[in-house]
Task: structure prediction
Amino acid sequence: MVVPETFFVNKSQAGRLIRLNFDGVDYFATVWLNGEKLGEHEAGYVPFSYDVSRKARYGQSNLLAVKVTYPWIPKGRGFLEYIHGIFPADSKPPSLDEKFAGKS
Result:
């Protein structure tokens, strides 16, 4: 999953310390700013940050992209299913017919 986000940095911020702070990404994260790779991080729920003072575009939009990989989700299962604990690790996912049977 790649999460893109744009943000604006005022020209008045030039020369100041600008950091991108992450509270945590579960589990592997690769981070880019304006197409330039900032780095990679491995760990769940551990804060990390990047100094982007020299990489930010002042007075313009900046494009942040974060690729998140969580390798422990069973094949054929969704991330939201995993984080909400909808299925046990060894179960077969229900079909759409099973999920919505009798619901109108």
Q: What stands out?
A: The two ends are 32 Å apart (CA to CA). The beta strands are 2-9, 19-22, 28-33, 36-42, 48-51, 60-69.
